[in-house]
Amino acid sequence: MDAVKHAVDVLKGSAKNANRGIFNQIALNVKGAFFQATGRRVGEMVGDDPEAAALKQSDQIALAVGEADGKFYTEVSLTAKSEEAAKAITQILEGIIAFASLPNEQQPKMAELAKKVKVTCELNNVYIYFGSDPESVVQFLKEQWQKNQQQKDSETTDFKP
Question: What pLDDT does residue 101 have?
Answer without folding.
Answer: 92
